[in-house]
Design goal:
The chain has a 6-stranded antiparallel sheet, with helices on one face. With about 130 residues, the chain is an alpha+beta fold. Keywords: DNA-binding. It comes from Streptomyces fuscus. InterPro entries: YjbR-like_sf, YjbR/MT2646/Rv2570-like.
């Protein structure tokens, strides 16, 4: 399966954005790329090896953002019961997939839900 260049560009932009947030680290549990803060995942970035369709999974507590994310083509509540806690998986290769800037907004919201207050304060000071 050929890698969708546009989806890969979005994925790379979202990954860089996530890792630039205060205290963010990248890890690779289960062969998947995740960004963590304070040892907790705030965005699942999936794989970039085309073994699975590219996408990002974020935790959206804001009802409007959560509802908007679910309207994206192919978007769905995250698996493994995470959907019940507000996690949404948004595919990047679907026609009409969200722009990188919107994905970054959602990553930031997910970060704010999970990060300790002092790091959110640091982010707000930027």
């Amino acid at each position: 399966m050929a890698v969708d260049r546009n989806a890969l560009k979005k994925w790379e932009k979202v990954r860089r954005f996530a890792l630039d947030l205060p205290g963010a680290t990248e890890e690779h549990p289960w062969g998947e790329t995740v960004a963590k803060v304070n040892k907790k995942v705030f965005v699942f970035l999936g794989t970039d090896d085309s073994s699975y369709p590219m996408g990002v999974t974020v935790k959206l507590k804001d009802e409007a953002a959560h509802a908007h994310a679910l309207t994206c083509p192919g978007a769905e509540p995250a698996g493994y019961g995470l959907g019940k806690a507000g996690w949404v998986r948004v595919p990047l290769e679907e026609k009409g997939a969200p722009a990188a800037d919107l994905l970054c907004d959602w990553v930031e919201e997910s970060y704010r839900v999970i990060a300790p207050k002092r790091l959110v304060t640091e982010l707000d000071a930027r």
